[in-house]
Design a protein that fits this description.
3 helices; four-stranded antiparallel β-sheet; alpha+beta; 179 residues
């Protein structure tokens, strides 16, 4: 259990599917802040946004954020050792918490989501929530998104098929290639 005061916490801003992938965000952030009695409510010592590439999986996103967070933590340690005051007030409203996401939830709106958003979501939640396994045509296969093309397949969105190039899930704007 942490104690309030000068203890530091290396806080990688959590990105649940509702933030990075469901909301189609391509930016996360790393924050170093003091620990107080609340959850992520201590004064912010350093904070930096981190760009996430389209289609990034959770492991890549966390690696990118962690690299920035580690550098920020070292900078904060240097500032504190030099006696520099660096803390700023924390505005919880500026960084709303992501809601808890259940594994059984279905997120993809196959009729309105863009091809890029759907691809990004499928890649980013892979290994955490399997959105492909239960789709018509999947037959329990472990399929992984590997790219997307703007070529209309003629199949219903959200259904899985095979053609000479391999497996794909149909989308109203094209296809998402699978392996």
């Amino acid at each position: 259990k942490a104690t309030p005061g000068r203890s530091l916490k290396f806080a990688v801003q959590k990105h649940a599917a509702t933030r990075l992938h469901d909301d189609f965000r391509l930016e996360l952030g790393a924050t170093v802040h003091e620990i107080d009695c609340g959850q992520d409510t201590g004064r912010i010592l350093r904070q930096q946004p981190v760009q996430i590439p389209l289609g990034a999986d959770i492991q890549l996103a966390m690696r990118l954020v962690t690299e920035v967070g580690a550098r920020l933590m070292a900078d904060v340690a240097d500032d504190l050792a030099a006696g520099r005051r660096i803390a700023t007030a924390h505005d919880p409203a500026a960084w709303p918490k992501a809601r808890i996401v259940r594994r059984s939830e279905r997120f993809i709106d196959w009729k309105s989501w863009t091809l890029e958003r759907t691809y990004h979501f499928l890649c980013g939640t892979l290994g955490w929530v399997d959105h492909l396994r239960d789709l018509p045509g999947a037959n329990g296969k472990d399929l992984v998104p590997i790219g997307f093309l703007r070529e209309i397949s003629g199949h219903a969105p959200g259904t899985i098929h095979a053609d000479p190039a391999g497996w794909f899930v149909a989308h109203h704007e094209g296809v998402i290639r699978l392996r």
